[in-house]
Write the structure tokens for this entry.
Amino acid sequence: TGGGRSDADTKALYERMRSEIRGIPGVREVGVGSTMPLRSTQFQLDVKGEGHTLAAGEPQPRAEFRTANPDYFRAAGIPLVKGREFTTTDRDSSQRVVIINQTLAEQLFPGRDAVGQRVAWTGEVLKFIGVSGDWRTVVGVVGDTKDGGLDAEPRGVVFAPFTQEFAYAGGLVIRAERNVQSLASAATRVVRGIAPQDPIENILTVAQIRDESVAPRRLNAALVSAFGMLAVIIAAVGIAGVLAFSVSARTNEIGIRMSLGADSGTVQRMILMEGGVLLAAGIASGVAGAVIVSRLIRGLLFGVAPYDPLTLAAVGVAMIAVGIAACWIPAARAARIEPVVAMRGR
């Protein structure tokens, strides 16, 4: 928005953009909204629900204020859980309506059907931002979205019809069947032709927005994984080194055992058994340590619990495999010792 346009002219421009982009081959839906999918505006206001009484000490609920046109939810892939989406008849002259997300519905109307209930913005800040505190009827409930990050708790959201509120911000959400990147160029040309002086920013696919939100955590995970791999290598070298030293120190003993009838398999099992004791002790202490300090890395985890047994088991099996491989080298060396050479070295 910009260029000194009135609110009506701005909304007319968005409608023209939506209509022309909808005609591009491959485009299925075009939505208009104040906030794009997986993005948070941080524009939160106090909100109240009709009939909802706050418990003693309970803070006033807050929710993000957003606007959307009738096609926004289908274009953004936000599921409608109850009620209806906005329609073209939800305009300034009609009854004020809103759509809320599941988190806010459960917060304001616990145990009740939110559709048909009324909500209103509240608080002293309304005097300064031009948002009405009138009651609005809930006509629909939509699913929660991960706007604060994939690992963030969902926030309460109130969607108002794009035509019923001031167009303080806006963007286009395009759902396409194919060739997303080429459609982005075509849509940009349409917007540029309609509003040549207005800036066009953040032309991104949902996948790119998602990657942006997880980029810091992905970097942290990569660093932790690199340190973990380095620790595994050091552990493997340490086990192999300890057993190799043990074999070299016990060359005479091994030679005597083999001269008395012990075969190479027996010697290998003896060395592997010694390494197995070290390995078992390391795995046990490592799992115990992981359980103890797992709370410290909770912020780096997504989609897996700190005490996930499958993950702990998988890591344990991997460490056992690495440990056996590290033990096998000195065990094979011990099995190749010639008894005569060992006895002469004595």
